[in-house]
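In this supplementary section we document a worked example of the pipeline. Step one takes a protein sequence of length 419 as its only input; no multiple sequence alignment statistics are reported here. Step two produces a three-dimensional model, which step three serialises into structure tokens for compact storage. The input and output of this example are shown verbatim.
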Amino acid sequence: MPRAKPASKAASSNTTLAKARAAAAKIIKKPQESYRVSLDPDQLTRPLPHLPTGSLIIDYLIGGEPNSFGVRPCPGLPRGRVSQVWGHESAGKTTLALTAAATTCAAGGTVLYVDWENDIVPDYAASLGVPITDQDAFELVQPETLEDGIKLAMIYAHAGVDLIIFDSVGAAVPARIADRSLDEVAEQSRVGELQAVWSQELPNLKKVIARTGAHVMGISQIRAKISTGPANRGPTTQPQGGNAWKFYSSVRLELRRIKNESNKRHNVLTHKTDDRVTGGIIQCQVVKCKLSKSQGRKEVFYINWGSGIDDMRSVVEIAVSHGVLKKGGSWYSIESSDGNIEKVQGTDKVMAFYNANPAEFQALYTAVIPYLGSADVKEEELDDLSEYNELFGEDADENKEGPDLSEEGEEGDDSEASE
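The serialised model returned by step three reads:
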């Protein structure tokens, strides 16, 4: 008796999947639309839904470089996902979170800010653009326990809020500890109690936001690792919150202040002009990224104390690097939209010009954007960037990046040992 010819691989596969779907429909008493995912080919030609962070550099790092389809996969915080931002004190964590909140609200979105640290400064948040008094756009809550904060996040996520920020995941107090009597204050807490709550509840929260399209950002401090010794040659510190944030975050960013920046300012106490620290250079490293090929990359951006992230300075530096803005020594040649060329000396003068002429800065910004992610880099452009890369590039020696200011002195030591 002749043996039947085997079905083609494609036909066999189609039959197998059809049988599996029919069996699943009988066993799982839910509509298949609730768990089956049908991918639209057009999704490959457009970015993932996202929320801008308010920082050109951070957006580019997360997913601003074009992929193999020529699409910037996710230039911002991905909707329906979780991100973790951590670093030492004064590294810009809260500033980045508030800037993302301001950008989301400005675009018509809504934000829930869970402030377990009870440390938000309203006037600083307002200076960054956060509508701190607009309860239809921005909701600030300061729950007493970790569990209450997670419940609020669940409720607001179900309601359709766009961005949820936890500041910070390690400052939350589990209910068992918060409810202790005064006689029990000295009682030793259970090891890993806070981490256990996050391990249990973060997956539930992620399931909710995956369906509603919210983004959850968790800010973490640095703590000393337990059981570090001669046999453990890895890092001696790690972010607070436990491994749940490592595993369930699609994006993990480490911020590090690598240099203070000083400017001449008038001192009213001495009635003299002296050097005063006015900002910092912040290095951002992408420790984990499921959205693009940027994992492991490092870039720097700038923060001015009191006014936040200085995107204008980053745009000017990119423009100079690509020849969009001409620079010779300390002199800049600015060609305005009317064709006039204005020469100014020093970065401060360039910033002042663009602050006074927003339309000119917008034109510069528009001219710079196409260069981001471009693989067409000329050799002379690499030469122009050699000094910058020596200080801040990916291959720079850590000692050449400037001191890790967050680890200097007693203040840095305290931050490492804090839980």
